[in-house]
Amino acid sequence: MTTAEKVAYLKGLTEGYGLDSATKEGKILSTILDILEDLALDQQDLNDSLAELGDGLDAVSDDLEDVEDLLFGDGEDQEDEDDGEIEDWDGETAFYEAECPSCGETVTFDEGVLRQGSIQCPSCGEHLEFDLGEGEDAPPEE
Ligand SMILES: [Zn+2]
Fold it and tell me: Which of 35, 51, 72 is the last residue of a domain?
């Protein structure tokens, strides 16, 4: 039984008992019952609004999750990729990250750029060179 239903029941009782609203007590009681009824209805409205707000929040939360998946991939931890090492990104095309030694900006680039051996930092313009190590196709020297 909701509060509104209880109040309605109480109102029915007073009517059933023939509460005389012409008397002082009857007037006060019926006024109290009216106030109770208003309160119960207000509470119901509040509950409805809260439920709507909750639904809205759920929708926003779901959308945010989609955006996060788009930006960061599925639930992957992105916090520990700033140690300056060239790391393999998961996925078909290999992407790499390096920290610009000049401005500290994290620069993302793909395999093609890596093969060129250098990139310009998009943030400060510093020329960054990659050490490819083994596997580098250096032109044969005479
Ligand atoms: Zn830089």
Answer: 72
Q: Kindly state whether residues 11 and 62 are assigned to the same domain.
A: yes
- pLDDT tens-place string over residues 87-121: 555 556 778 888 888 999 888 888 888 888 888 89
Return the bridge partners of 107, or none: 98
pLDDT in tens, 24-67: 988 999 899 999 999 999 999 999 999 999 999 999 999 999 99
N-terminal to C-terminal alpha carbon distance within the chain: 95
For residue 76, the CA-to-ligand 1 centroid distance in Å is 26
What is the CA(79)–ligand 1 centre distance, in A?
20
Q: List the domain range (segments joined by +) for residue 63.
A: 3-72
Q: What is the gyration radius of the CA atoms in the chain, in angstroms?
A: 35
Indicate whether this model's pTM tops 0.85. Answer: no
Distance 49 CA to ligand 1 centre (A): 50
- What whole-number distance in Å separates Cα of residue 45 and Cα of residue 21? 29
Report how far residue 94's alpha carbon sits from residue 82's, in angstroms, rounded to the nearest whole number.
17
How far is the centre of ligand 1, averaged over its atoms, from the C-alpha of 113 (Å)?
16
